[in-house]
Amino acid sequence: MESKRFGxxxxxxxxxxCAGTDSGESTVAGDAAAGDVAxxxxxxxxxxxxxxxxPVAYGxxxxxxxxxxxxxCYCPCMLYGHRSLADCHRSQHSAACATCLxxxxxxxxxxxxxxxxxxxxxIAAEVKSRYRAAIVRSKLQAGDLPALRSDGGxxxxxxxxxxxxxxHPAMYAASDWRQSLSRMEAYLDQSATxxxxxxxxxxxxxxxxxxxxxxxPESGERYRQSIARAVAHLAATEGESANYPSNQDPILGPxxxxxxxxxxxxxxxxxxxxxAAVQLDDPDPNCxxxxxxxxxxxxxxxxxVDAVEKLAAELNLGNN
Length: 320
Hints:
This protein is 53% helix and 2% strand. By secondary structure, it is mostly helical.
């Protein structure tokens, strides 16, 4: 297993900042364990409940790629070149993104409700519909945009949740939205699956431009930076967008992630000072020792997992 890791917090913060709020994403907050402080060392691991969804999502993707290939991913990876939710599971990207995980877990739940996959297109459409509905509810509840229940606001939510999370109008000044909206119009003209009526599109465009004008120009900077960070992260970890992901890259199975989750579970039983005493030969500046690596907030290297398993064996943990 290649020892990549992705920081959970980075992409989730980027997605949340772009969308205003998330759509019921699993928590990624660190959780404490008994005896987590010793000699100044402190555990701050990713939430175990969140980590346990990772192998579930990859298991669903591995078992039913024909469904996930028909579902758009609602995180910024679509801006980088991912064509569907299946592409998010061709690397460890999904493990670092609560949005990707939630969609894949939802897909598995819908498949289970149907008792299997008789019609991949219909199931994918149902997953997308449910996720879009969750996004719209979240935006309405957030209350950070004006007049969302107006005709223009509803058109914005409908049109802009078709294949990604609705962008915050403050991302650009009213006059600067033209170029971005023109790209979207070109995409709609070419798409065989995404159809938005002209009246809905025009109302959405008008809402975006009018709402953008109510925000000071500098307020959009954090939204643009959040997207830039997410895309830069993908570029650094996945390579050039022209080459990755490829349909030739296999969807990863859940096995590695099951092992990693178990390592985090074992580490909760190991004293913090013992974890901090283990030095790792790892180029990541966040990993000077095993505790720091586990505290870094995401997928860790195989060396870190090996080290946890070795410590657990020495302490006779996990054998009962």
